[in-house]
Amino acid sequence: MDFADVITNRYSCKKYSNKAISDDVLNEILEAGRVAPTAKNLQEHRIYVCQKPEDLELIDEITPCRYGAPIVLVVAYDTNNVFTYPGDARDSGIEDASIVATHLMLGAANAGVDSCWLNFFDPTKAKSALELPENEEVLMLLDLGYAAEGAGPLPNHNSRKPLSDTVVFR
Question: Which of 50, 73, 112, 132 is 20 to 30 A removed from 59 (C-alpha atoms)?
């Protein structure tokens, strides 16, 4: 698929069919995350693939926003393996995990799989419910699946500010 089509046509799916994602397609999506750039190439991200009924039940306890997706990727990062920026005010954990998550989301769209970036959950509760290691922080959840009949973008999906409102040339 043309990259411009991927980034223009991708939307946050809110209703999934029960059509399964093949292992090959899932691996293609995961590979898109694997090749994402990270600070100093530390690759501190962790991706948990939740697809077993008991794991999806845990996700449903964490957020009301699974929308019936058959797979949810939990994107986390290892807080012990991050690059600390000069000034010690920030580190690369959230940034790098966000880049990986974006690659996963766009990789899914490229593979014809719908997705929804979820941030409506308590990361501490998610970490506890999923029994993640103490040194990991959950950034986001990514629903994956094929859109159900009648699903589509929200009415405001194509509403974008002009570049002049968001870009400053200096």
Answer: 112
Choose among 136, 130, 140: nearest CA to 105.
140
The model's pLDDT over 104-119, given as tens digits with 9 standing for 90+, comes to: 999 999 999 999 999 9
Bridge partners for 12 per DSSP: 115
What's CA 2's distance to the chain center, in Å? 21
Confidence of residue 25 (pLDDT cuts 50, 70, 90): very high
Alpha carbons 151 and 13: distance in angstroms, whole number: 7
CB 63 within 8 A of CB 134: no
Of the candidates 82, 78, 85, 59, the one whose C-alpha atom is nearest the C-alpha of residue 144 is 59
- Predicted pLDDT of residue 1: 77
d(CA 90, CA 82): 10
Size of the chain in residues: 170
The H or E element that residue 127 is part of is helix 123-129
* Residue 140, phi then psi, degrees to nearest 5: -160, 170
Convert the pLDDT of each residue in 27-86 to its tens digit: 999 999 999 999 999 999 999 999 999 999 999 999 999 999 999 999 999 999 999 999
